[in-house]
């Protein structure tokens, strides 16, 4: 028990760890709140309360992301044009993904500032633009993972000069990581399209509980990759 508490405390002390926990709680509350709000009586009241908690946690994450630009810029500069990447396709996909991720943040900041009354602007337009960049990043992430899976399958058993040979367990771990990244990105992409304007695919049509389910699934995968398995990255 003491070990579990210490482990949770260590997770919450780091920014990324705390964000993962808040994200999971946010979508879990949305999932349960969406289900309970459809019921009558006490269940409906509990559902509304959980949806309020979910909204506040989401707002908390939005405010905290005001400080993510520098970290993203540092990562993008470090990656550069990806000259160390062995596959040119993955290299350029990663570069475009980094650009998309970098542009996502200022657009979201403007939308937040407009909603908060800090600036005079139409927040809906900026929320849509930020969602477009997020969706683009997710799609590119899926393509990148599919390409990685293809290369892992093609190069299975091959040994490249200057590199230590990979064990079967390492290859399986990489394959599992890429599959989980694809599932996580697809789950988030379902929600990203839902938050697009009505008329664009299923924009605005997903029920609250489904948005919560997709977000919870993606969040749990992220937690597993960070603390229970190898991780491969995402926005």
UniProtKB/TrEMBL annotation:
InterPro entries per record: PEX11, PEX11C_met
UniProt entry tagged with the keyword Coiled coil: no
GO cellular component labels: peroxisomal membrane
Location(s) in or outside the cell: Peroxisome membrane
Superkingdom of the organism of origin: Eukaryota
One BP term from GO: peroxisome fission
Keyword Membrane carried by entry: yes
Keywords attached to this entry: Membrane, Peroxisome
Protein name as annotated: Peroxisomal membrane protein 11C
Source organism of the structure: Hymenochirus boettgeri (Congo dwarf clawed frog)
